[in-house]
Amino acid sequence: MTDSPIHDAVVERQTPRADFSIDQCWSEYTADEHAVWDLLYARQLEILADRAAPEFLNGLKKLELSRSGIPDLNRLNPALKAMTGWEIVMVPHLVPDDVFFTHLANRRFPAGRFIRRRNQLDYLQEPDVFHDIFGHVPMLANPIFADYMQAYGQGGLRALALGTLKNLARLYWYTVEFGLINSADGLRIYGAGIVSSFGESQYALEDKTPNRIKFSLERIMQTEYEIDEYQKTYFVINDYEQLFDATQQDFGPIYDRLKAQSQTFGTADVIKQDDLI
Ligand SMILES: [Fe+2]
């Protein structure tokens, strides 16, 4: 698709600070922009009730994201900060990797201000406020996941210095964006890319096509991903401790090993060591 990026006059008139943050200027969202949020929210909630991870649904409830309209950071940030010490900062567009990781390492989640238009409910060129807040923020209210996200940011700064960002970025992709969890009630979604997508929320759990493979850090770090179609493979965690624990080891030797093996798996590959679900 060749749609031009969505223009947001409130974003465009601002000069970002050194950390790329800008003001949300919540009072300047239009009634129609709030209505798009409400439409997306209602649509997602209907299909996520028995598909999203309990921790995600719990986060939505605790942060009162069901309140009508695009959330006001002046209200949302104090609530989130009281729960896990995280806050959201608005940014004008995708930010450079070092800026992104520095925010995460300091428990700040960068979010886009603009919201998609009514004629693009299911297509996004870059993450909007619905993806970033509805998709990511509920899980940041979970203490273990919140710690994992910070550890990821710290790991990102290190990976940048080591030249291993490609490996680490795959971890974000297959967990934070497209992760599934084995819950007491069966497979559930916690990845922001899935919970904020009407089609993929159903496909990720119910479609017969994609592989669902038990979480393996090194396997993920070797697996390519595609950004503009549904995933061909999902990785499934047992619990959030598993994610956080994975980041509590030195990635240096892992990167060395991956470099030495120099093996990459395609998005749909299944290998002998995979534990398929
Ligand atoms: Fe995202």
Folded structure, characterized:
The chain is α/β, with parallel strands linked by helices. The strands form two sheets. Strands 4-3-6-5 form a four-stranded mixed beta sheet. Strands 1-2 form a two-stranded parallel sheet. It has 13 helices and six strands. It has one domain: Phenylalanine Hydroxylase (Orthogonal Bundle), CATH 1.10.800.10. It has helices at 9-12, 31-48, 54-62, 73-84, 97-105, 129-140, 143-162, 165-177, 192-195, 198-206, 217-221, 240-246, 251-261, and strands at residues 87-91, 108-112, 180-183, 186-189, 211-214, 233-237. The two termini are 34 Å apart. Strand 1, helix 5 and strand 2 (108-112) form a beta-alpha-beta unit. Helix 7 (143-162) packs antiparallel against helix 8 and helix 7 (143-162) packs parallel to helix 12.
Essential attributes:
alpha/beta; two-stranded parallel sheet; Phenylalanine Hydroxylase; 6 strands; four-stranded mixed β-sheet; 277 residues; binds fe (ii) ion
Arithmetic mean pLDDT: 95
Helical region count? 13
Helix content: 40-55%
State the CATH topology: Phenylalanine Hydroxylase
Indicate the topology.
Blueprint: H1 9-12, H2 31-48, H3 54-62, H4 73-84, E1 87-91, H5 97-105, E2 108-112, H6 129-140, H7 143-162, H8 165-177, E3 180-183, E4 186-189, H9 192-195, H10 198-206, E5 211-214, H11 217-221, E6 233-237, H12 240-246, H13 251-261
Parallel strand pairs: 1-2, 3-6, 5-6
Antiparallel strand pairs: 3-4
Helix pairs in contact: 3-6, 5-7, 7-8, 7-12
The protein binds fe (ii) ion.
Residues 127, 131, 135-136, 177, 192-193 line the site of fe (ii) ion.
